[in-house]
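User: Hi! I'm working on a homework problem where we have to compare a predicted structure to a textbook description. Could you give me the structure for the chain below?
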Amino acid sequence: MDKYTFEQYAKHNQFSSFIEMIQTELKNFNPNIADDVAEALAIEGLFTDH
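Assistant: Happy to help. Predicted structure tokens:
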């Protein structure tokens, strides 16, 4: 198994921060949205062809 490198950590950290930013924007738009729903929408939005 490969070692978890600093570069991988940095990419994961950037991705997590980006998802959190999208979640925050969704919650600002609709404060009643549940956290897990906001997370699912944020992640789904990244991988859906619009």
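For your comparison, note the following. The chain has one domain: 7-45. Residues 19 and 33 are 15 Å apart (CA to CA). Good luck with the assignment!
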